[in-house]
Design goal:
heterotrimer; A alpha+beta; B mainly alpha; C mainly alpha; A: alpha+beta; Glutaredoxin; seven-stranded mixed beta sheet; two-stranded antiparallel ribbon; B: mainly alpha; binds protoporphyrin IX containing FE; binds copper (II) ion
Chain lengths: 200, 191, 479
């Protein structure tokens, strides 16, 4: 009897604990976890200066109360960052189409500012059609980088071939500077919906 | 004996702690060496408690259930990432694996019915197989802290572990138990 | 739980056989409906045809496994104490699985065949949703877990009592200087061998089931289609073979009651069973001879072993049966007649299989009705006949020692129906009629219709066997 009760207690407590540890079995990986957390907690992103490819200095929470879509890249990336660039061009076109061009801006932020000088940023922008109006390519100060990545939950690790592997995603920051959604870069419809929601 | 056991456990534990960076530098040694070693510490320390007759642990079911949930938690890629990025989780790992996985596993196993043991062994093999499948076939990176190639390597390591475990558990079945052969030779002498 | 020696649970086994008899009847009616639809005798929506085909395949294979398992449990219980709880858990999980499978098919609309070939369950083109396929597969998994428990119990008891797997397979006699007197009885050897290969088969099946389930829920996890096909056919081939190898235990145990001579584990018998153990697992590539991407050695192995696998089986079981029968005065009754028919049907059924396993023939015939032809012979006239024989024996009356006229008639009807029905499949196969087609061309109607008639005879015979069995059970209860 005692054994049965104890087993029952563990059999109930165990799944409850796992439920809690996985946000209701929604997030088994760290990547899903940060996406769930962003939706739920809407954490503030740090106040950071970025240098855009035009040379101009811009703030991360937007000064003119725009929604900001953020992705992290390094311009010498041969794979993911290139296809993400194509995705972002489509997001940008979608924003224009939906008439959200004035309320939303897109920032590609390099997490490799030592390699990615103004020159590299412009080249990357040019090759993906980022003209600096809605979408621009930027880089942070080297010392601000860790704080920035940590706040967004982005992890960058060397890939043994001189490049990096990193969790690529589109991060939506609302006008108040809160991280309110994280999506796959190719989820264009999802991104446009999230932008619309954040702008209201 | 107890002293030796505590010493071994301590040694293994400090090994896991001292060579933390080495073990955690890639997922294969992290998941398939460091974690089991930590659990083993707990199993060693739990030895004196193994023969404790406790009513609540009839058949070892409760202890095994605790271990099962502990293992499940540490099989979540999310937990592995968290241990690398959050010091609190790393501390929790070093405490919970001996206490919530290794020790209950040893205590429960000692009491478990042979049928339950067989079932758990089959379950362990199939879970290793499933993990192998998941890690070799995942369309995405599962751990943010590890490279895709390492993820693939971990998948194959799961597969090899599954094969090794099968061989380890099945090989002895071919020859029969020592009791059987003693009995047989006695009956031959008598006859 | 304690390991008390137990009776071989006659009650539970008898109940299982009754259940199996009823399910067999129902599934045969499904078969009849399919055959009649192929002959354009009735109107059947193809969607429903494929649901019925899935239910017929899964239901028949499952029932064959169930009857084999009941027979094995019953007779192995004579030699080692088996835990009754395990059998009930097995039966419970089996029935639970059946409910999920039937729900997946007839409520969810799953019609992807009992072989759930990847990626069909996930790509129905709208015929069924993922939930239906998942229900079907979870049902399989439940049955698999039940079988796993079952074999764990049988396996561990045999290993303890007979000195390891080697001892239970009579290896000392087969490959060493062991004496025949020390060798375990045939039932033990057969039970140990089937326990091993069916456990392996089920584990492989469970692995591919889980992978398919993951694929169903998260399509990003793509399974390698060729590997999945290999695993599924390995599982399917091993499982259906195991059902026969388990059922044949009834022959080893019951026939001696008629011949008065014990069935002995000889050296040849022991070697043959060890060979069967390997062949059953190595022969499955003969299902994949048309997959040109398969490595050549695997296909050649499948072909060569197909020839060989006939030998241990025919030589040992069928040949010794002949020897035992010739040397003694057997009083024929329904039980003995059906058991002997079972061995004969099994042997005959393997001949078209061997023909089909020739790569050159296979290229022409494998997706024709030749294949259902071969397996229906060894199932209707083999495994199922053995099961009916076991059922007849279970309710045999001590006083009655001969076949009544009705027994004779039913036996003849079943035999005639079974032979005719399966021959029509073979004829269709030889004429290149494809298998698994809901709608047939008018040129094929003739065989389809003749087969439909024969199928009715099979059902008639079965009805008699199951009714006799049910009546026997009730009479015994009343006594
Ligand atoms: C009166 C008895 C039976 C009839 C009328 C019957 C009829 C059929 C028919 C028409 C098919 C489809 C053939 C095709 O592919 O074109 C079939 C398939 C099959 N039958 Fe039977 N059958 C009978 C008995 C059995 C028995 C006793 C078993 C096994 C114990 C069995 C197992 C199977 C299996 C495994 C398939 C393959 C299903 C598939 O291709 O997915 N059948 N049967
Ligand atoms: Cu990249």
């Amino acid at each position: 009897m005692k054994a049965l009760l104890a087993a029952l207690a563990v059999a109930l407590a165990g799944p409850a604990f796992l439920w809690k540890a996985t946000d209701g079995f929604q997030a088994l990986t760290a990547e899903d976890a940060r996406r769930v957390a962003a939706m739920r907690d809407r954490p503030m992103v740090p106040d950071i200066r970025l240098r855009a490819m035009s040379g101009e200095v811009i703030g991360l929470p937007s000064a003119d109360r725009k929604v900001t879509m953020v992705e992290f890249i390094y311009t010498t990336c041969p794979t993911i960052c290139q296809s993400a660039g194509t995705d972002l061009a489509r997001v940008r076109d979608g924003l224009v189409e939906k008439g959200l061009g004035d309320e939303v801006r897109i920032l590609s932020i390099s997490f490799d500012p030592e390699t990615d000088g103004p020159h590299q940023l412009s080249a990357y922008g040019e090759s993906h059609g980022a003209d600096g109006r809605i979408w621009t390519i930027t880089r942070p100060d080297v010392d601000a980088l860790p704080r920035l990545l940590r706040a967004f939950g982005v992890v960058v690790i060397p890939d043994r071939f001189g490049g990096y592997q990193h969790n690529a995603a589109l991060h939506v920051v609302d006008p108040q500077g809160r991280l309110s959604a994280i999506l796959d870069t190719d989820d264009i419809t999802g991104a446009l919906g999230a932008a619309k929601r954040a702008s209201q | 004996m107890i002293g030796a056991r505590i010493l071994t456990a301590g040694l293994i534990f400090s090994l896991c702690l001292g060579f933390r960076d080495f073990f955690e530098s890639n997922p294969v040694s992290h998941v398939l060496i460091q974690l089991p070693l930590l659990a083993w510490c707990g199993a060693l320390l739990a030895q004196p408690a193994i023969n404790l007759e406790a009513e609540w642990n009839r058949g070892g079911v409760v202890a095994l259930l605790i271990a099962l949930f502990g293992i499940t938690f540490w099989m979540l890629p999310r937990s592995i990432d968290a241990a690398l990025f959050s010091p609190a989780m790393e501390v929790a790992k070093f405490i919970s694996l001996p206490l919530c996985v290794g020790a209950p596993l040893a205590i429960g196993w000692a009491r478990a019915h042979p049928l339950l043991r067989g079932f758990l062994k089959a379950q362990a093999v199939s879970m290793l197989g499933v993990m192998a499948f998941l890690y070799t076939h995942a369309p995405v990176r599962i751990c943010n802290a590890y490279l895709v190639d390492d993820q693939l390597r971990l998948g194959y390591a799961f597969l090899f572990t599954a094969i090794a475990v099968v061989v380890l558990w099945v090989a002895p079945l071919f020859v029969g138990s020592r009791e059987f052969h003693q009995m047989r030779s006695r009956s031959v002498e008598a006859g | 739980m304690t390991d008390r020696a137990c009776e071989p649970q006659p009650g539970a086994v008898k109940f299982t056989m009754l259940l199996a008899g009823i399910v067999l009847l129902l599934m045969m009616v499904f078969g009849l409906i399919m055959r009649a639809a192929q002959g354009n005798l009735i109107e059947l929506d193809p969607t429903l045809f494929y649901q019925i085909m899935t239910a017929h395949g899964a239901g028949m294979v499952g029932t064959a496994g169930l009857t084999g398992a009941a027979i094995l449990w019953f007779f192995v219980g004579r030699y080692v104490p088996l835990l009754p709880g395990v059998y009930y858990a097995f039966l419970g999980l089996f029935l639970f699985g059946v409910i999920l499978i039937l729900g997946g098919i007839f409520i969810g609309g799953y019609g992807g065949g009992w072989t759930f070939l990847f990626p069909l369950p996930a790509m129905s083109g709208g015929a069924w949703d993922a939930g239906a396929a998942a229900s079907f597969m979870v049902g399989y998994t439940a049955i698999g877990v039940g079988f796993l428990l079952y074999y764990l119990e049988v396996g561990r008891k045999l290993i303890v009592a007979y000195g390891g797997i080697g001892g239970a397979l009579a290896w000392p006699l087969a490959f060493g200087g062991g004496r025949q007197e020390d060798a375990p009885p045939p039932t033990v050897v057969a039970a140990m061998a089937t326990t091993i290969f069916n456990t392996i088969g089920i584990v492989v099946g469970a692995a591919v089931l889980v992978c398919s389930l993951v694929n169903l829920l998260a399509p990003g996890f793509a399974v390698d289609a060729l590997l999945a096909k290999n695993m599924i056919y390995f599982f399917g081939h091993v499982f259906i073979n195991a059902s026969i190898y388990m059922a044949v235990i009834a022959v080893y145990e019951i026939i001696p009651q008629y011949t008065g001579r014990e069935w002995k584990t000889t050296r040849v018998f022991a070697i043959a069973w060890s060979a069967v153990l390997l062949f059953v697992m190595a022969v499955y590539p003969h299902h994949l001879l048309q997959d040109t991407v398969m490595p050549g050695w695997a296909l050649v192995m499948g072909q060569v072993i197909s020839y060989l696998s006939g030998i241990p089986l025919l030589a040992v079981t069928a040949f010794s049966l002949l020897v035992y029968l010739r040397g003694s005065k057997v009083r024929w009754d329904l039980a003995s007649a059906l058991l002997v028919l079972g061995v004969a049907g099994w042997s005959v059924g393997s001949i078209p299989a061997i023909i089909d396993a020739m790569i050159s023939v296979n290229k022409l015939m494998h997706n024709t009705q030749w294949v259902p032809g071969h397996f229906h012979i060894y199932l209707i006239l083999g495994e199922v006949a053995m099961s009916f024989g076991f059922m007849a024996w279970l309710v045999k009356e001590a006083r009655k020692t001969a076949m009544t006229g009705l027994d004779r008639a039913a036996f003849a009807v079943y035999l005639l129906g079974g032979a005719g029905f399966t021959i029509m499949f073979l004829v269709s196969g030889a004429l290149s009629v494809p298998r698994r087609w809901a709608v047939h061309a008018p040129e094929w109607y003739l065989q389809d219709r003749v087969a439909t008639g024969f199928a009715m005879l099979v059902i008639l015979g079965t009805l008699f066997f199951v009714a006799t069995y049910a009546r026997g059970l009730m009479r015994r209860r009343a006594d």
